[in-house]
Design brief:
Elements lengths: L7 H30 L19 H5 L1 E4 L8 E4 L8 H6 L10 H7 L1 H10 L2
Antiparallel strand pairs: 1-2
């Protein structure tokens, strides 16, 4: 059997792109579950810099990021940003506040679905 017009670089690129699409789909699955699990409080209208928070800001800050130029080809799910700095306090808790995790349970509850996406596609 003879293979004609075989281009391994093109095949590698197509395989990598397909796997990255599957990883992005898994990331979106985890992010959507995390958005549904995140605690949403009431808006605090205060005078101080530290007391004015928008209700649902943490939920809006959950995002999936594909790192460009990374040789390991990572896809990450983030919660929080500069304005929503308290995401880690909600997830892990503090000395004065109990933890209310939403990212780790979202990951744990979606493992079987993620495995199916990785094996069979979207």
């Amino acid at each position: 059997m003879r293979v004609v017009n075989w281009n391994p670089q093109k095949a590698d690129t197509e395989i990598i792109n397909a796997s990255m699409e599957r990883l992005m789909a898994v990331g979106e699955l985890i992010a959507s579950k995390a958005r549904s699990m995140v605690p949403v409080g009431k808006s605090i209208a205060g005078k101080g810099k530290w007391s004015s928070r928008e209700a649902g800001a943490l939920k809006k800050s959950i995002r999936v990021v594909r790192l460009q130029g990374d040789p390991r080809r990572n896809v990450r799910v983030y919660a929080g940003n500069r304005e929503v700095y308290y995401a880690r306090f909600i997830e892990m808790g503090t000395v004065k506040m109990r933890a209310r995790p939403f990212l780790r349970p979202a990951l744990n509850s979606s493992k079987s679905e993620a495995k199916q996406i990785l094996l069979n596609g979207v």
